[in-house]
Amino acid sequence: MPLYMDVHKHVEGLTAEAVAGAHQKDLEVQGKHGVNYLKYWYNEREGEVFCLVEAPSKEAAETVHREAHGLTADEIVEVKEGS
Hints:
- The protein contains 2 helices and 4 strands; from the N terminus they run βαββαβ.
- With 83 residues, it is of the alpha+beta class.
- It has a 4-stranded antiparallel β-sheet with strand order 2-3-1-4, covered by helices on one side.
- The mean pLDDT is 96.
- It is 30% helix and 31% strand.
């Protein structure tokens, strides 16, 4: 399955708790769309969040975010894992 990194920029009021809550909501919805959100990283100071996800398409990954909490990514890029 393709692997994607999505980027959320300029997230207002970003906190560790808010990101964890949004990720949990993704996990609750992802199965309906054949998506698997694996990890996330964030930078509170810059208001940025990065999500690593296995998904059949960019659109499926975005659908999960939209349905789970409405915070869609500014960019979604297909990536390959390296060492």
